[in-house]
Inverse folding.
């Protein structure tokens, strides 16, 4: 990964390099390309952008399926004008049932080694205006009768009005704060440039745990699995229930097997990068947050597998309890090891602390979270290991951090 | 005057360093460093000795021993507590598990306090040989004769991986979940 990223810094994305070489020659030769109605068009950045977008979606059918289900199909044959001088920005319309539902936003960096993609579907006036301008194009097109499509299409450039606030040409991130921007969840293993992706795609911002979880909480399969576990009758079972998330053309969720003696089995193989499982109501003294074994399995299996098969920020561990749902994420460099003695110390500290709590204290999520966040900070102490709480209704996440024994747990909502 | 000031300073320093002593039922969760959680009511000796119980065609022999004023480097305080070592035999008297010879500091069962339940003493069970199976044990006398002991074990959540030697067979049940033990 490090080598690839290093190379990505130095190498341009082939599609853009080829395009810009051609374009500069055309400019030198004062050439233009004729459109079907005979007007002259310069070579458009929409061409290399659409090539990269296409490759991105082909490589990530899981994301493509979700995009199609939720918002529709990107029309590669229509794009906005290109914004920006050094960096380049462009919008494509996404249509469902012939209506523009949202926009696909691409951003090319200055040295042509990286493209970020974003799905824009917020309710802001600027986004809605751009959607309307694309929709106008389709409405007018529908009114033009009897004009067949040309055998070789150029990409029509729809002149749209850029956002009046935080325009992409000034700020490459479109409105990430309002919950309206959907960041692709499957870019984690695509960060980098042309070597890794045959053209370079990816969104470095999606490596952020909050963005990852936001994308995940919008994924219907993930939501369905959480919903299936977060039920009274499941939490009252005699045995814990759970699933492991596996890499594949589409993320699959496989049930975790139970053994005798209250153990869940994390499946063998390196395709599993996450787990979701319950901690029960049916037994006395159950700690309604991750156990030391959960933490260890997350680090030594989920993070390790994600490092091998994707990126470490893909990894997650999630525990569903009647007192709250929690997620572990990792954003470190992977340089950690857990010795037998360390793990024994973790267990000793953890079981002592929680066994010391009275029944009413054990049922107080604030106390559970405080002790566990202290456990992560002072006992586990692995840089990049982070604890989040997931809202049971909205799926929104907040980072929880230990802030000393005299203070409550520091809670930072994800943007 | 200078001597008086020095004397006051010395007294103040000494009083600051005086060890705080707590019972085995402290109201606080976080005890200060170097404090002493003391068996002020001298309750722990009643549990000392060997106890026996049978479950699922297996027999448990468990010996409790009181440790006094031992410093816990993990929690940074001193405490009185019980350690327990045990052996388990099948119905033919064959040994299934036996850790009676472990040194006290490596005992798989170590006491905490009465804080959680008030009338029941809590202990921690951690067994590295069983894929780090862990749990909380609580014990209490069934009557004033103190010859029978109610035992409850709550195992913690333990997700296992293929690193666990019992991954395919399941971790054996080394201790009973609930039983009444008889003093030997």
């Amino acid at each position: 990964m490090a080598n690839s990223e290093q190379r990505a810094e130095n190498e341009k994305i082939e599609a853009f390099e080829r395009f810009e070489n051609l374009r500069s020659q055309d400019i030198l030769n004062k050439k233009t390309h004729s459109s079907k109605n005979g007007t002259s068009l310069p070579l458009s950045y929409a061409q290399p952008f659409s090539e990269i977008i296409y490759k991105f979606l082909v490589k990530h059918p899981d994301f493509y399926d979700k995009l199609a289900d939720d918002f529709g199909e990107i029309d590669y044959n229509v794009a906005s004008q290109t914004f920006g001088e050094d960096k380049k920005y462009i919008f494509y319309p996404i249509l469902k049932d012939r209506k523009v539902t949202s926009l696909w936003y691409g951003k090319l960096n200055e040295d042509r080694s990286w493209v970020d993609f974003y799905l824009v579907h917020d309710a802001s006036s600027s986004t809605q205006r751009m959607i309307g301008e694309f929709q106008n194009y389709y409405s007018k097109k529908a009114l033009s009768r009897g004009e067949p499509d040309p055998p070789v299409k150029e990409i029509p450039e729809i002149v749209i009005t850029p956002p009046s606030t935080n325009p992409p040409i000034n700020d490459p991130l479109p409105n990430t704060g309002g919950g309206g921007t959907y960041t692709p969840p499957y870019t984690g293993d695509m960060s980098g440039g042309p070597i890794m992706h045959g053209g370079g795609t990816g969104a470095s911002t999606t490596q952020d745990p909050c963005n990852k979880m936001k994308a995940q909480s919008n994924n219907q399969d993930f939501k369905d699995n959480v919903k299936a576990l977060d039920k009274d009758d499941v939490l009252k079972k005699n045995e814990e229930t759970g699933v492991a998330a596996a890499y594949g053309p589409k993320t699959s969720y496989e049930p975790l097997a139970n053994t005798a003696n209250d153990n869940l089995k994390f499946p063998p193989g390196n395709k599993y990068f996450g787990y979701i499982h319950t901690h029960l109501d049916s037994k006395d003294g159950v700690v309604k947050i991750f156990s030391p074994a959960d933490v260890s399995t997350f680090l030594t299996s989920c993070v390790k597998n994600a490092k091998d098969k994707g990126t470490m920020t893909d990894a997650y561990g999630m525990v569903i309890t009647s007192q709250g749902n929690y997620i572990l994420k990792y954003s470190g460099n992977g340089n950690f090891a857990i010795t037998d003695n360390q793990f024994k110390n973790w267990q000793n500290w953890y079981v002592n602390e929680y066994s010391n709590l009275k029944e009413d204290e054990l049922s107080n999520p604030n106390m559970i979270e405080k002790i566990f966040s202290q456990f992560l900070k002072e006992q586990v102490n692995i840089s990049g290991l982070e604890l989040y709480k997931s809202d049971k209704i909205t799926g929104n996440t907040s980072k929880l951090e230990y802030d000393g024994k005299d203070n409550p747990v520091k809670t930072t909502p994800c943007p | 005057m200078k001597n008086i000031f020095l004397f006051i300073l010395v007294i103040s320093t000494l009083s600051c360093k005086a060890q705080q002593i707590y019972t085995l039922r402290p109201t606080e969760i976080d005890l200060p460093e170097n404090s002493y959680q003391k068996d002020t009511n001298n309750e722990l000796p009643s549990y000392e000795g060997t106890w026996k119980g049978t479950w699922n065609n297996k027999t448990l022999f468990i010996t409790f021993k009181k440790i006094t004023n031992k410093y816990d480097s993990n929690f940074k305080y001193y405490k009185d507590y019980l350690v327990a070592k045990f052996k388990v035999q099948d119905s033919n008297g064959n040994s299934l598990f036996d850790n009676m010879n472990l040194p006290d500091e490596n005992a798989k069962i170590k006491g905490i306090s009465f804080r959680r339940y008030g009338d029941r003493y809590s202990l921690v069970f951690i067994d590295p040989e069983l894929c780090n199976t862990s749990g909380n044990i609580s014990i209490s006398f069934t009557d004033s004769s103190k010859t029978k002991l109610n035992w409850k074990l709550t195992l913690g959540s333990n997700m296992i991986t293929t690193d666990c030697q019992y991954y395919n067979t399941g971790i054996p049940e080394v201790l009973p979940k609930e039983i009444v033990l008889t003093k030997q």
Notes: Residues 1-10, 34-39, 165-205 of chain A have pLDDT under 50 and may be disordered. The interface with chain B takes residues 240, 256, 259-266, 268, 275, 277, 279, 283-287, 291-294, 297, 300-301, 340, 343-345, 347-349, 351-359, 361, 405 of chain A (CB under 8 Å).
